Amino acid sequence: MDLPPETIELDDLILRRFDREADLPELFRVIEESREHLRPWMPWVDEHSLDYTAAFLARREEAWAAGRDFTCAVVLNGVMVGACQLFRREDGPADVLEIGYWLHPAATGRGVATRAARALVGQAFRFPGVDHVEISHDPANRASGAVAARLGFTEHGRRRTETGGEDLVWRLTRRQADRVAEETG
User: Where's the N-acetyltransferase domain (predicted)?
Assistant: First the structure.
């Protein structure tokens, strides 16, 4: 499997592969400042600690090198404001990649998540055999659903979560993505 670029530049927004050592302090700070904002949607935030964040970065480095999971820092105007990810679910079909994202509350409502997810969609369809891209989120997380809808994803169904809850799953086919690209030129 080819790897996506380690840096994607979108004017004032940069998606870049995490640097395990250099990014630890800043990622820890961004998560710490975002805990209450993320808590309803991201169960892992309750385990947040410096050691947990260091282990997260180590796993991301290994997963990238293995071609399984591509997690990037979201950097706006030179400041890390969140993370985004392109990955294949271990229990998922081979022709589907999923996108995930979260932002510091100060970066929300400005199109940052939409721009980041759009860039990841473009990368996802460069992988051979990928016919669908999905975004899943808690049904109450309307902001994540709005990102998916803006990018042309359609509601596909629901999926049980590891914590016993349910996620809303949005899907975009390669054909839909091509049509949206043609329309937006």
Answer: 13-175
